[in-house]
Write a structure and sequence with these properties.
By secondary structure, the protein is mainly α. The protein has four helices and two strands. Strands 1-2 form a two-stranded antiparallel ribbon. The longest helix is centred in the middle third of the chain and has 17 residues. The radius of gyration is 25 Å and the shape is extended.
C-alpha cells in the first residue's frame, strides 16, 4: 500500500515525517559530524522557520504525542545467565 502526503509518495517513515513537517528531519535533529558553524547555521534556519510558522511547534508536539500513544511499550525481558563453571572441579590456577 502506498502512502501519499500532499501529492508526494512517502516511501519510508522519515519521508512521511518530512512531508508532514515540510522540512527535512536533519534540520531539527542535526547530522553526525557537523561542525559548530554548521550547527549554528542549522539552528538559525530552524529559528527562522519557527518564527514564520509559530504553530509548527504545537503541531509537531501533538503529532509526536500521537505517535507515542500508538507505539507499544516494550518491556525488557530477563535472560538467564549462563556460566561455564563446572561443579566439583577444583582448580589451582596454575597452568600445566
Amino acid at each position: 500500500m502506498k502512502t501519499f502526503i500532499a501529492g508526494h509518495e512517502a516511501r519510508t517513515t522519515n519521508d512521511a515525517l518530512e512531508l508532514a513537517l515540510g522540512t527535512p528531519l536533519a534540520l531539527w535533529l542535526g547530522e553526525d559530524g557537523e561542525t559548530p558553524e554548521e550547527r549554528a547555521a542549522r539552528l538559525d534556519a530552524a529559528r527562522d522557520i519557527l518564527a514564520d510558522d509559530p504553530e509548527l511547534f504545537d503541531r509537531v508536539t501533538a503529532f509526536a504525542a500521537g505517535l507515542i500513544d500508538l507505539t507499544p511499550i516494550r518491556r525488557p525481558t530477563r535472560t538467564r545467565r549462563t556460566t561455564n563453571r563446572r561443579r566439583g572441579v577444583v582448580s589451582s590456577g596454575v597452568a600445566a
